[in-house]
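Postdoc handover notes: sequence design on the structure in folder B. Input tokens:
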């Protein structure tokens, strides 16, 4: 859904805003959840198959962030290894989607093998949500991340005006 589309301007945005303000009058926590769910809907509008990938990435990074925050408070010696594992996991996911087609095509060109592999589609906003979450992991490891409310984290990563347009927030 584009920001200048009829669906966005006359359906999605008014529904999201009216719902947000109506819910916020009763509960700020539920209003944040409404906005997070709306942001997930916005992302899923493009291709709902990648919604699970986004949610899996969020779950992974939230869990690693919690572990890093606890390890930082307790000054655990394995803190850097956990941070490295989290960052490597994120970069492997990003690298797969960004470069798998390139490597398969390059190998086919070098070997002359005609592969029938379907092209891997680059998920919308994958660089943005990956680097946003890496910044969160680094902050958690440094003891700078103070809030670990899952709904707020979900909204932090998926907030619809930033998810596909950026910039990376810190």
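Designed sequence:
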């Amino acid at each position: 859904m584009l920001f200048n589309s009829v669906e966005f301007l006359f359906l999605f945005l008014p529904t999201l805003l009216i719902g947000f303000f109506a819910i916020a009058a009763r509960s700020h926590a539920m209003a944040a959840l409404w906005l997070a769910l709306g942001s997930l809907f916005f992302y899923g509008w493009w291709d709902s198959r990648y919604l699970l990938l986004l949610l899996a990435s969020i779950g992974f990074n939230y869990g690693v962030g919690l572990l890093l925050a606890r390890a930082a408070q307790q000054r655990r010696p394995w803190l850097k290894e956990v941070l490295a594992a989290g960052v490597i996991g994120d970069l492997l996911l990003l690298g797969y989607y960004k470069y798998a087609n390139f490597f398969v095509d390059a190998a086919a060109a070098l070997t002359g093998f005609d592969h029938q592999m379907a092209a891997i589609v680059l998920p919308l906003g994958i660089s943005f949500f990956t680097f946003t979450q890496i910044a969160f992991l680094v902050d958690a490891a440094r003891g700078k991340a103070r809030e670990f409310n899952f709904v707020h984290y979900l909204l932090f990563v998926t907030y619809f005006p930033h998810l596909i347009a950026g910039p990376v927030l810190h």
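Context for whoever picks this up: The radius of gyration is 19 Å. Don't rerun without checking with the PI first.
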